[in-house]
Design goal:
By secondary structure, the chain is α+β, with helices and mostly antiparallel strands. It is built from two helices and five strands, in the order ββαβαββ. The chain has one domain: 3-Layer(aba) Sandwich (Aminopeptidase). A five-stranded mixed sheet has the order 1-2-3-5-4. A hairpin with a 7-residue loop joins strand 1 and strand 2. The chain is globular.
């Protein structure tokens, strides 16, 4: 079996993940697509499937490519930036 991509989201937590659970939104923790399948809409399809069931999702987008994928699915800037895994990242959110 060949895995071309995966998505992992969990219940959002206050205080940038160190606090209690926040009812409602999910936090997108991981979206990965095998290199041979990138730019083929696999990432968008995985996110679209998640968003059908859970329409309120937040994510940190390190780099413009990550942010572009999220913006294509109606994620909007949350007004926060940080360094994530050594890269400048923007927090994006999609609300129902």
């Amino acid at each position: 079996m060949l895995v071309t991509g995966c998505v992992y989201a969990e219940v959002a937590r206050d205080q940038d993940g160190d606090g209690p659970m926040v009812p409602g939104p999910l936090h997108l923790s991981l979206l990965c697509v095998a290199a041979a399948h990138r730019r083929g809409s696999v990432g968008q399809a995985l996110l679209a499937g998640l968003l059908k069931r859970f329409p309120h999702v937040s994510a940190w987008a390190p780099g413009e490519d990550s942010a572009a994928v999220l913006r294509a699915l109606c994620f909007a800037p949350a007004g926060r930036t940080a360094v994530v895994r050594g890269m400048a990242a923007e927090q994006l959110v999609r609300e129902p």
